[in-house]
Amino acid sequence: MVRYLARIWSLVRSLSVPCAMVVLWALTLDAASPPNIVLIFADDLGYGDLGSYGHPSSTTPYLDQLAAGGLRFTDFYVPVSLCTPSRAALLTGRLPVRMGLYPGVLEPGSRGGLPLEEVTLPEVLAAQGYLTGMAGKWHLGVGPEGAFLPPHQGFHRFLGIPYSHDQGPCQNLTCFPPATPCDGICDQGRVPIPLLANLSVLAQPPWLPGLEAHYVAFARDLMVDAQRQGRPFFLYYASHHTHYPQFSGQSFAGRSGRGPFGDSLMELDAAVGALMATLGDLGLLGQTLVIFTADNGPETMRMSHGGCSGLLRCGKGTTFDGGVREPAVAFWPGHIAPGMTHELASSLDLLPTLAALAGAPLPNVTLDGVDLSSLLLGTGKSPRQTLFFYSAHPDEIRGVFAVRRGKYKAHFFTQGSAHSDTTADPACHAASPLTAHEPPLLFDLSQDPGENYNLLGGAAQVTTEALQAVKQLELLKAQFDAAMTFSPSQMARGEDPALEICCRPGCSPWPSCCHCPESQP
C-alpha cells in the first residue's frame, strides 16, 4: 500500500495549481459534474490521536498524507459528545434536540430512532441521482421491522452493525487474531451484535478481525458500480475504530507500537489508504471530495485503550473542547488547496455544504448548519460565527451548556462524565456534579485551547474585552434557548427486547440463541 500513498501524493502535487485557478474552478463548479463524496467518520477518536494532529507515536501515514494534501481544520466541532446525537447532527444538519435524540444514546431494543420525517444527507443526494451507500456503525435506531435502519433513511446500500459493537456480549469474541479475546465483557443480557446487509442478517456475531476488510470491499463495489452506471456516489464510511473494545485484522495486531488502540487506529488508517487507492485506480481522485472527521472525543476512562484529546480538556461526554473538538480534513485535488484553516466549522455544516456542491436544494426545515463551500474552495471565509453545545443529557430549562463565538468560549454549566474518568483533571470525572456558573467560565481559545485559565476567575485581571465578550455570549445563549423547541425524546419511548435483531426469530433461550456466527478464515 506504500506505492498507493506515493501515487496519491504524486497526483496531488500534479494537480496543485495557483489560487487563481482554484477560484476559477470554484466559479465554474455549478456547470461541472457534481463530485463523488466520501465521508469517513471515526468513532471515539481524540483531537490528539493522529500524527498530523501531533501524536508522537500514532501510525497514521495515509490520514497524515490526506491532511497534507487537503484542508486541515483546527477548529472543527460536533454539537454533542456522544455517538447517537453526534451522528444525527452529521446526517441532518440539525441539532439533536430538534429530533428528540436525547438523552444519551439509543439501545439495541429502543423503540425510538431517527424520525423518518427528518431529511437526511443521503436523501438529499439520492434525489440528485447519487448512488448512496453506508458501511459501518449506524446507531440511529432499529425500530419495528428495521423501520429506522439506513435503507429507510436514504441509503441504497448498507453493510454494517446497527449500533456500537460493545452493545452486546463480547467476552467470547476474538478482537485480535489468531485468538486474543476482546477486552472486557461489554453489554450483557442482549443479543450478539448483528452484521446486516441492508435489512438482512449476514452474521451474528461477525468475526471482528475481518470486519474492516468487508467494509472496504463494500466501498470498492459501490464506487465501481457508480462509475459503471455513470452516476456520482455518496459513501458514508462510519468505521467502528477506535471505539472500545478495539479490534483489528492480522496485519495490524501488535504492529502499531501503541497497543490495542494503536492497532485499531492503524487499521482505520489503512482502510483510508485502501479507499484512496480505489479512487486512484478508477481515475476518480480529482472528481471526489473526501472528508474525514469523528463523532466525539476520546473515552479516557479506558486510559491507554481510550484515545487522546491532545492539549484539549477532558473527552467524551463533556462540553469541554476535548469532548467536542475533532480532527477534520477535506481533500479534493484541483478544487481544495492544501493548507490549514482556523475558521470555525461544525459537523452540522456538512449537509448544507455538500448539498451546495452537489447542486441540490436544501430541505424545507430549520437547519443549524451553514454552507462552507466558499471556505473549502478558497473563495471566502466560513460564515459560521457561533457554536452551541448541549450536554449529553440536555433539558429545556438549562438549555445549552456552552457557547463559542470567535475565539471566546463560555461555559454556563459543566458536568463530568464517566466516559472522561481517569484523567488528571477532576472536572472531567463522573464525580464532578452538574454545576451552574454565574458568571460563566470564560476562555480565550486562541491563547488557551486547553481551557485552563478562566478570564473571569479570581486570579485573573478582568479586561474590558473579556466583559464585552461574556455579555455577548450571555445574550446569544438567552436568544438561542428562547427560540429552541425540543422535540419529544425518542429515548423516552423506552425499550422492547423483541425489537433486538435476531438471526433466528422466536428461538430460545433468548437472547443467546441468536447465534449465527461468521466462519473464521
Give short descriptive properties of this protein.
eleven-stranded mixed sheet, globular, 11 helices, alpha/beta, 25% helix, four-stranded antiparallel sheet, 17 strands
Characterization of the model:
- The strands form three sheets. Strands 1, 2, 3, 4, 7, 8, 9, 10, 11, 12 and 13 form an eleven-stranded mixed β-sheet that branches.
- Helices cover 25% and strands 17% of the residues.
- The protein is globular.
- Strand 5 and strand 6 form a beta hairpin.
- It has eleven helices and 17 strands.
Secondary structure layout plus pairing:
Layout: H1 2-15, H2 19-27, E1 36-42, H3 61-69, E2 71-77, H4 83-92, H5 121-126, E3 131-137, E4 157-161, E5 174-176, E6 180-181, E7 195-197, E8 200-203, H6 211-229, E9 233-238, H7 259-281, E10 288-294, H8 321-324, E11 325-331, E12 339-341, E13 345-346, H9 350-358, H10 373-377, E14 386-389, E15 402-405, E16 408-414, E17 435-444, H11 464-483
Parallel strand pairs: 1-9, 1-10, 2-12, 2-13, 3-4, 3-9
Antiparallel strand pairs: 2-11, 4-7, 5-6, 7-8, 10-11, 14-15, 15-16, 16-17
Helix pairs in contact: 1-3, 1-7, 6-7
